[in-house]
Amino acid sequence: MFGLKGKSFLTLHDFSSEQIGELLELAAVLKAKKKMGIKGETLNGKNVALIFEKPSTRTRCAFTIACTDEGAHPEYLGKNDIQLGYKESVKDTARVLGRMFDAIEFRGFSQKTVEELAEYSGVPVYNGLTDMYHPTQILADLLTVKEHLGSLKRKKFIYIGDGRNNMANSLMIGCCKMGMHMVIIAPESLWPESGLVTTCTAYAKKSGGSLTITEDLNSVKGADVLYTDVWCSMGEEEKASERIKMLKPYQINMDLITKTENENVIFMHCLPAVKENEVTEEVFESKYSVVFDEAENRMHTIKAVMVATLS
């Protein structure tokens, strides 16, 4: 597994395209086994701490089931269950949990927190979401694209909406590393940070992909994937009315689907969706939508990460 044992999963920057491909292949194998009712024993005797500063449906359920399917014990630690970062430093909490658990998942606000947990715990740490990155979601997205379109290379992947949130950041990294033609369509004020664009452009050049940042909605022509996310991330609720006004022209609706000129285009969303904002109900419930395959794949790809780094 390309030497992944003991490695943390904090951002896809830290993984080669070969390693990402290996994780996707492992996830497909584990998914097939689960469909056949075959449970594994690769994580027998392991204990995994699940730290949640932010609430979750998919991330919590995916980690919990992935652990139990492979024989591990997941321990949920909500924001009121431990004293992370206020009565006790992240550094000290990391060293305590690292003595008791074999791995730690963190879903919260600061990327610095998940990096400190990895630095001081001595065990693999998994980023279940921060304000900057959401790498476990991207693995699920890539697996879903492979399942529906057969491959990743040279597929045109369009992300529309807030182009500088954690999903846009992480999709840029993943798609550019895997040789896809990544396009972010967003108002210029919501374009991704220039340093990240430079880094991802280099990834794309190496993999045979490309990266385009634009305001032009006509760029959806030839899209294989249309992807969007909520217009206001968790913690930005006070900006809702401003964002809705700014991003309404960037809604994914049937007119935009038609503009792709691809009857086999797929629609993706990391969920939860605010229907009639970033996507219409019509598209969400249409034949183009693969959002629930994508949601299920969170479990299989998260399982693959834990098996590769712990077993």
Automatic annotation (TrEMBL):
It is an enzyme of class 2 (transferase). It catalyses: carbamoyl phosphate + L-ornithine = L-citrulline + phosphate + H(+). Residues 7-147 form the Aspartate/ornithine carbamoyltransferase carbamoyl-P binding domain. SUPFAM superfamilies: Aspartate/ornithine carbamoyltransferase (SSF53671). GO terms for cellular component: cytoplasm. Residues 155-308 form the Aspartate/ornithine carbamoyltransferase Asp/Orn-binding domain. Coiled coil: none annotated. Keywords: Cytoplasm, Transferase. Belongs to the aspartate/ornithine carbamoyltransferase superfamily. OTCase family. This is Ornithine carbamoyltransferase. It comes from Holtiella tumoricola. The gene is argF.
